[in-house]
What does this fold into?
Amino acid sequence: MDELKVFSGNAHPALAQAVCDYLGMPLGRAEIFEFSNENIFVRILENVRQRDVFVIQPICSPVNKSLVELLIMLDAFKRASAARLTAVIPYYGYGRTDKKDQPRVPITARLIADLLTTAGANRVLAIDLHAPQIQGFFNIPVDELSALPLLTQYFEDRALDNLVVVATDIGISKRARDLAAKLHAPLAIIEKRRLGNSDATETLNIIGEVQGMHALTVDDEIDTAGSLIGAVNTLLDHGATEVYACCTHPVFSDSAPERIASSPVKEVVVTDTIPVAANEKLNKVTVLPTASLLGEAIHRIHTGLSVGAMFE
It folds into this structure.
């Protein structure tokens, strides 16, 4: 296991290339395509026998294709006798289905963990999982990185005065509290409830003071942006002067770009765990790179150094 190899699926090759640039090494060569019958084919184009292999593939749109592609790649590397296989999953799709909160529903996040292990993954490297318990779904090591230092540094440089950090729901309050502490700002929490199995939510209350302050909302992902826009409007109705937003994963499905463009939010800061397509409607969106974060973690895993020390 004396040689490091980094490969990419088709979900986010630009991120994989940026990680390799950080590591000062070429991206591994592989042939990955879909036949006319939608079956995915993978062929590794270089020797990986007894190598330490990292496969970078967020489970993002098209989600099911990205997932199956990752599973097939892991199987190909396992059969090519890689010494160790690490699935680098910047965005863990299906992470929101992490518990049995209704009768007769699956825990899909656990199912994905089982599939990854069966396919051959020896460990997983991810960024900001939707829920901490997802790490416990695996029987292999899981390293979870945090984008919080990137977001903190960005807003420290922005030097917004009279700032309040706002958790978009109670579930994200710990992460929001950590950001608030790093920015030396107070914390507020938006109390909301989800309406059935749809993406719609209803804002019930704001816990904390936002009157006359710059508000910064925190979430792990922005999907349709419906919750974000509801939070922004509620904060402005309660007297916030301006509202900024940040999250790790820019899913931006459905009409999210249009909603963000037409909303009163000042700026939306995200990372590149998911590719953000060029879109004039996303002129309010700032994308922070994660290549150095992932690259340093890959280097530390390969050389046996502490990953946790990156955040101390």
Remarks:
- The mean pLDDT is 94.
- The chain is about 30% helix and 25% strand.
- The chain has two domains: 4-147+291-311, 148-288.
